[in-house]
Each structure stands twice: as structure tokens, then as C-alpha cells.
Amino acid sequence: MKKSPITVQASIAAPLQKVWDYWTGPEHITQWNQASEDWHCPKASNDLRTGGKFSSTMAAKDGSMSFDFEGVYDEVIPGELIRYTMADGREVSISFEVKDGMTLVIETFDPESMHSEELQRAGWQAIMDNFKRYVETMSRD
């Protein structure tokens, strides 16, 4: 039985174009794409187009573990929507919209079966929160 999708989101105090660029630019992805301080994202690549592939390496800073998070884009509408299928077949959708002067990023993903839904939601939300902090900090420059 397929589990219900999980949604995480953030309301970011930055213009839509900056949020989009920071979400999709490999030079930015490596700065925010981790769920905790003891992990990092040493490399990322992104061919942002329908049919294009992306990959980011997520690794423990102590070198004990790493994995590649990768997939293929099913749909890309610049500044609005990204839909992709991960290497394991699960689907993800990310929408971007401006609401009350903030940029709202809503990410919905199919859960995997190895970890609890609560753990997955917490991990993806932690990455989203890192993204929000990164964009808002960089927006002050």
C-alpha cells in the first residue's frame, strides 16, 4: 500500500527570484542541503529542465557515511514548480509562490518505507529550515 505524501514548507523573507535561484543553483545547494550540523553537501549538479538530471552528495562531516540524492525532472516551470522522480521511483513536487510579501516554498514527497514518516518529515523540514536560514542570511548582504 502506498503511503500518503508528506509536506514540508517554509515562508521566506526574500524575493521569489532569489529563492528560486538559491534552491536550484549548485553553488547554493552545497551551502544549505543538509539536515544537521554534522552533515554537509560537498557537491551538487543540476540540469534544471524537463528530462534533466540532478544529484547532490550528502555526507557526514566525519567521513563515516555519504550518499547521493538524485533524480530526473518531470516538470520545471521557472519560478513556480519543480516536479521530479528520485532514483528509487518516489515523486517530489516543490511549488513556489508569493504570499503576503514572503516567498512560500511547499515541498511534497512520497515517503520511503525504511524510516518512520515522522523522522522523514523532520529531516526534510530541517533541510527546508536550513534553506530558509541560508536565503534570509544571504539576503541581508
UniProtKB/TrEMBL annotation:
Residues 14-136 form the Activator of Hsp90 ATPase homologue 1/2-like C-terminal domain. InterPro entries: ASHA1/2-like_C, START-like_dom_sf. SUPFAM superfamilies: Bet v1-like. Gene3D superfamilies: 3.30.530.20. Belongs to the AHA1 family. This is Polyketide cyclase (CypC). The lineage of its organism: Bacteria, Pseudomonadati, Bacteroidota, Cytophagia, Cytophagales.
